[in-house]
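Lab notes, practical 5.
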Amino acid sequence: MQVREFVEADWPHVWPIVREVIQAEETFTYDPAMTAEQARDTWVVRPPGVTAVAVEGHRTIGTAHMQTNRAGRGSHVSTASFMVASDARGRRVGEALCRYALDWARSRGYAGMQFNAVVETNHAAVNLYQRLGFQIVGTVPGAFDHPKFGRVGLHVMYIEL
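Output from the prediction step:
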């Protein structure tokens, strides 16, 4: 598996992953009826942020984007989001994407990385982030309306770089 920067030709391969994840409605607050164009405008970030893909052979199996978390006085902290194709989960694709994002943030001198909304029932992601050094710094109770579990919390997670 290789993780690299997204290029325009990747979008037709990234869109099915994004569509699958948002239509599952279990980990992102995005509108499940989002069109490919709307999703592209949301997912593919503008510089100085970067969007990345995880590829295996000629197949795209995951994607990430990373950027400054807040402007101005908060611009020393980065953020990132990750999506993995359902048939590639459990194969450390998310870990490779997260490590890529952390390396990206360190290389640009960010002081830390903050995840603003990790669904507390997304145990695989929470456990991965904690294994990589992130801490849960707070949870907003009931902030995510999960299709199976009802209203669950959203974790704010942080790692100092």
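Observations recorded by the TA: The longest helix spans residues 93-107. Helices lie at 11-24, 36-43, 93-107, 123-131.
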